[in-house]
Write a structure and sequence with these properties.
single chain, mainly alpha, 20 helices, 67% helix, 0% strand
Length: 172
Amino acid sequence: MASPFLGLSTANIAVLTTTQLNSLSTADYILLTTDQVRALTTDQFASLQTQFVAALTTSSVAALTTDQVVAFRTDQVAGLKTNQVVALTTAGIAAMETGDVAALTTASIAALTTNQISKGLTTDQVAALTTGQATSLTTTGIAALTTDQVVALRTDQVAALKTNQVAALTTA
């Protein structure tokens, strides 16, 4: 059976009800085009079941507007796969609420690109990282921290860093 999304215009996508959106399957969400994903309103996006957000392709995630990223619920963010987090633009990373950043898995934090770290993460987001997330940053990720981000690190985050991370921090 063909996906109900096939052939729907972006205007049609934008008027789907929450009930209609949440009655579909994850297979349907995999088939959304990037234009169709961008057509979802923030209210529609916020209402999506977690498994539907997790089913979005990396190209769809990369196409999200900052308003859509802001609309993420914490459980939706926690359900993102690592490759989806890496697909977020730096503006998308910067748009995430601090509670949402704290919900990212340590694997997702470890996979962040240097641009996502240096140009995406805000100082508030860096301060909101759990110690587990902070210690999951690669040495390259630590070295990508800006001076303001380093200043934003909490004492417990710095104390939890491994020796090679501290060495990378001193060059940041």
